[in-house]
Write a structure and sequence with these properties.
The complex is a heterodimer of chains A (105) and B (649).
Chain A lengths: L1 H6 L2 H8 L8 H21 L13 E2 L2 E2 H24 L16
Antiparallel strand pairs in A: 1-2
Helix pairs in contact in A: 3-4
Chain B lengths: L1 H9 L13 H23 L4 H6 L6 H12 L2 H14 L9 H11 L1 H11 L4 H9 L4 H33 L4 H50 L2 H11 L2 H4 L10 H15 L3 H9 L3 H33 L3 E8 L1 H13 L10 E5 L5 E8 L8 H8 L5 H16 L5 E3 L15 H8 L1 H48 L5 H26 L9 H4 L1 H12 L3 H10 L4 H18 L1 H9 L4 H13 L6 H19 L8 H8 L1
Antiparallel strand pairs in B: 1-3, 1-4, 2-3
Classes of the chains: A mainly alpha (105), B mainly alpha (649).
Chain lengths: 105, 649
């Protein structure tokens, strides 16, 4: 196990240290991808989309305009989704295509 | 906060802003420009002199260089000057535009990884290579994609040169705009010509780091200028008018459909423009793009939200916007009224909010002006004092109309920047960042302020140059490979094509510089937002590049479209963006508003039932045409369908 751990890239070692296990099965990864997509779209819909109406008042939240805080909150959700996708969903399949080249049109 | 306003309003030496900064900006700027040239030469020394190396750095860029060059290409003067300028004009609603960045970050992986695989497999250099190969369209689609690249790149380069002029003007005085613009254009042109993609990427690395640090430092320094987070927050929440704290902003443009369409389409549209496409090709692996996507989403959005956007908001507190209502005063009484108001300048009964603005002709505008949230009520006493100035019936009626406008109008008041920001009187909102950093930072933060300000000046230059270089470099590849190599001299050697690419860089730079200079002519300056506001120019360019989205999505994910549908859809999308955007308005005005075109323009304006980004109008025509013609098309499937499916499986 220590050997396996040492062979992993830095972000994998970090997630293992935090208790996450990113080597999910394909169905589990797909399910997570769907949930993350829904969450991201929801954040976009609620942030710059019609959801902004919920914070569209000239009032102060945490010392700043409500609309600004609303935007910051939506950013945190989007950032969380991107981070989760990076750690658990996106795969390193670089070498699949090889380096062959064929003439272009 | 009153002290802050006092500082701003007693400060009338904007033209000599450098006094507050000492010699620091000169040294920092000089070192920065020399470093760029050194990196250009280093890139040239390391190059292999062939076309793939000149345009794609041998497809060997690692994740740090790739991440930063993608970020630096995305970050332009739009980010450093345009976005704070727009927040200064519109208020907090434009800060929500920052949420387009995570969407763009996702595109780096979702589009970039697939484009990389195909580029590596089939040896593509430009987007036109891939599109033409997939659809088997050697002429129409290749040329249309090249045209889209041109329509995106030139406005973007124009914006960056404008930024160089603007910074120069604020630092060295009103006459130095042209010098700043020319110096920025010349140095950028020089290092791209010397070293190609490698030099562009290396300079982008330095510029990207400068940008990230600069943007975050700008936000933090702004808080320090106010004396702390509490004071900053109090100034923002108490001194800004309600329209600055809510959607749709001060001019009423930024309702949610506009913000949402921008966040979804402007971001993805700017990630399929040729310069970014070539960055995906030049990465050394998918892992590089995957890491780039995360860094892009997290770091860049933070730079916007917690950095430069705060400058725009704080700018409104330091330099309050001017709001006004105006009514027209006919020529026969305009001069008399203006003279009477002038004579009564010291009359304490005359409200200070009232003024008469004479124009080039003999007509005039009666105006009621106030700053920020201090709207002055137009009382009956004010009405009597003003009406006593001139007994003319037209004047009396105009004053009554003005009072009615101020008290009851459902129209939004006109907005203008504070005169301390807008030194040339041409609605220069984009100057807010430079004004704040040159006038406020040194005053409040002393020597540290001068250092912060110098760093930010260089960051602005970096933002402008890193985007200009990427777009000029991509444009040179597009015009050389997609036009010259295909239709003019197909047998040209690689060396000839590289030299032609350098010629394209010179020509495109000169074209962009000419547009900037023409836009500064007195009869155009202040007339069109497009020529005055960096953000407007950027949004128009993105609307053009977004028309590549249907083709990109089809090639990378769906693989259902046909060549003819793609070509017709793209052509129609570009035409609609032109007609629905600010260019057509300028075109019709330039021709003297001939009847058929004026009627067409009115018809188009009537169709815009809600404010939406120009890309939406274009895609509303592009996508249906693409789908319908592809479905109806009886031609054989695109020749690249099977090959692309195999690579992307």
């Amino acid at each position: 196990m220590p050997g396996f751990f040492a062979e992993q890239p830095a972000h994998r070692r970090l997630t293992y240290s935090l208790g996450f296990r990113p080597n999910m099965t394909a169905p589990a990864r797909k399910k997570l991808a769907v949930w993350l997509t829904v969450l991201f779209l929801l954040a976009v819909f609620m942030g710059p989309g019609p959801g902004m109406a919920l914070a569209n008042r000239p009032v102060v939240w945490f010392g700043m305009p409500a609309l600004y805080i609303w935007g910051v909150g939506c950013f945190f959700i989007e950032a969380g989704v991107v981070l989760a996708a990076f750690l658990f969903v996106w795969r390193d399949d670089d070498q699949k295509t090889g380096d062959q080249k064929t003439p272009t049109a | 906060m009153n002290m802050m306003l006092l500082w701003a309003q007693t400060d009338d030496a904007l033209a000599s802003s450098l006094q507050g900064l000492g010699a620091a900006p000169y040294w920092v700027l000089a070192c920065y420009l020399i470093l760029l040239l050194v990196l250009g030469i280093a890139g040239w020394l390391k190059s292999h002199r062939d076309e793939e190396d000149y345009y794609l750095a041998g497809r060997r860029q690692g994740w740090i260089v790739s991440s930063l060059t993608i970020m630096a290409t995305f970050f332009s003067s739009f980010a450093m000057l345009g976005a704070p300028g727009m927040v200064y004009r519109e208020g907090v609603v434009f800060a929500l535009f920052s949420l387009n960045v995570p969407v763009a970050g996702l595109c780096v992986y979702l589009f970039g990884a697939r484009i990389w695989k195909l580029g590596r497999r089939f040896g593509y250099v430009t987007p036109g290579d891939m599109v033409a190969d997939y659809y088997g369209s050697r002429v129409s689609l290749r040329l249309l994609v090249a045209l889209t690249g041109f329509l995106y790149a030139i406005p973007y380069v124009v914006m960056q040169i404008q930024a160089g002029g603007l910074v120069s003007q604020q630092l060295f005085g009103p006459g130095s705009f042209e010098v700043g613009a020319i110096v920025l254009a010349a140095i950028t042109m020089l290092y791209i010509m010397i070293g190609g993609m490698r030099s562009v990427a290396w300079t982008d690395l330095v510029q990207g780091l400068l940008l990230i640090v600069g943007m975050l430092v700008a936000g933090m320094a702004m808080i320090l200028v106010f004396g702390g987070l509490g004071e900053f927050s109090q100034a923002i929440t108490h001194d800004l008018p309600a329209s600055s704290l809510t959607a749709p902003g001060n001019t009423g443009t930024w309702a949610w459909p506009m913000v949402l369409s921008l966040c979804l389409l402007a971001s993805s549209g700017s990630m399929v423009q040729p310069a970014q496409w070539m960055r995906y090709f030049s990465a050394d692996s998918v892992t590089t793009l995957r890491r780039g996507a995360v860094i892009f989403s997290l770091v860049l959005t933070s730079c916007f939200l917690f950095g430069v956007m705060l400058i725009g908001l704080a700018g409104q507190a330091l330099y309050p916007l001017q709001f006004s209502y105006s009514v027209h005063l006919p020529s026969h009484t305009a001069k008399t009224a203006a003279a009477a108001v002038n004579d009564a300048a010291n009359d304490t009964n005359l409200p200070t909010a009232f003024s008469v603005q004479t124009s080039d002709g003999d007509d005039a505008q009666l105006r009621w002006t106030w700053q920020g949230r201090d709207k002055q009520p137009f009382t009956e006493t004010d009405l009597a004092a003003i009406q006593s100035l001139d007994a003319d019936a037209a004047f009396q009626t105009a004053v009554q109309t003005l009072q009615s406008e101020v008290q009851h109008s459902k129209q939004r008041p006109a907005v203008a920047p504070n005169r301390l920001v807008d030194t040339n009187g041409k609605a220069d909102y984009d100057a807010i960042l430079v004004v704040v950093l040159t006038k406020q930072f040194p005053r409040v933060l002393g020597q540290f302020g001068a250092i912060f300000a110098s760093l930010l000046i260089v960051a602005i230059m970096a933002a402008a140059m890193s985007t200009a270089d990427s777009n000029l470099h991509a444009l040179s590849a597009v015009l050389t490979r997609d036009v010259y190599d295909q239709f003019v001299r197909p047998n040209a050697s690689e060396v000839e094509r590289v030299w032609l690419g350098r010629g394209v860089i010179v020509a495109a730079t000169l074209l962009a510089l000419s547009i900037v200079m023409v836009g500064r002519r007195p009869e155009l300056l202040g007339k069109y937002d497009l020529l005055n506001m960096i953000a407007k120019m950027g949004l128009m360019a993105i609307a053009f590049s977004a028309q590549l989205l249907p083709i990109t999505i089809d090639m990378l994910f769906l693989r259902k479209g046909a060549s003819r549908g793609a070509a017709v859809g793209l052509a129609a999308g570009l035409v609609v963006v032109f007609l629905f955007g600010p260019l057509f308005q300028m075109f019709v005005d330039t021709l003297g508003r001939p009847a058929p075109l004026a009627v067409m323009l009115d018809g188009i304006n009537a169709l815009k039932f809600t404010p939406l980004h120009g890309s939406v109008w274009g895609l509303a025509v592009n996508v249906p045409l693409f789908v319908i013609i592809s479905v109806l098309s009886k031609s054989k499937p695109p020749p690249g369908r099977e090959r692309f499916a195999e690579v992307l499986r």
